[in-house]
Design brief:
Elements lengths: L45 E4 L5 H13 L4 E4 L5 E3 L2 H12 L17 H11 L6 H8 L1 E3 L5 H4 L3 E2 L13 E3 H7 L4
Parallel strand pairs: 1-2, 1-5, 2-4
Antiparallel strand pairs: 3-6
Length: 184
């Protein structure tokens, strides 16, 4: 004989939905950060005296100042130091100068030999130059060989973070490097 099928279990009744909770009052949105101070084209630049500064550290600090919207002028670029022995630095830079286009050297890359253009090229490498902020930052940079008349009257600062810490014989000046790679 066939076994009787067990009786189907009754389905539990649907749970009543709880009463809707009152929505919490909307939190006030945090106020937007105040935009950075807009720098006038006529505002005075920050003038940095490059004497006895290490090139890489100075470049990174200047790049940060430029990205914050400051105008920066670096003077005495020929007195900026590069850490290491002169022979090693000059040989390394000469290898860098050998890089050129296969087709024709006029197609680039172009290698700076003057101390002021070397420094501006270093700073350019630390900026996002493909973005509008990087292009605008680079346009606010001025690098000078010596101290020009229009900047002489402005107060010069030195960045303690980027000063040399050993005797100057442990470093090579940008002037020496430029002269050894074909400047003047």
């Amino acid at each position: 004989m066939a076994k009787p099928k067990p009786a189907a279990k009754p389905k539990p009744a649907a749970k009543p939905k709880p009463a809707a909770k009152p929505k919490p009052t909307a939190k006030p949105k945090p106020t937007a950060k105040p935009k950075e101070k807009v720098v006038d084209k006529t505002s005075r630049p920050i003038v940095i005296d490059g004497t006895n500064h290490i090139a890489g550290r100075l470049s990174s600090n200047v790049a940060k100042l430029l990205l914050q919207g400051n105008r920066v002028a670096v003077v005495n670029s020929e007195k900026i130091m590069i850490s290491g022995r002169q022979k090693n630095i000059v040989n390394e830079y000469k290898k860098f100068l050998e890089i050129s286009s296969i087709l024709h050297p006029k197609h680039g890359p172009f290698h700076p030999r003057r101390p002021d253009t070397m420094l501006s090229r270093m700073i350019r490498g630390m900026l996002p130059r493909d973005k509008p902020s990087g292009k605008a930052a680079l346009s606010r940079l001025r690098v000078y060989h010596g101290v020009p008349k229009d900047v002489k009257s402005l107060g010069k600062i030195q960045l303690e973070k980027s000063m040399i810490r050993k005797s100057s014989s442990s470093y090579t000046s940008m002037n020496d490097l430029g002269r050894n790679v074909g400047w003047n």
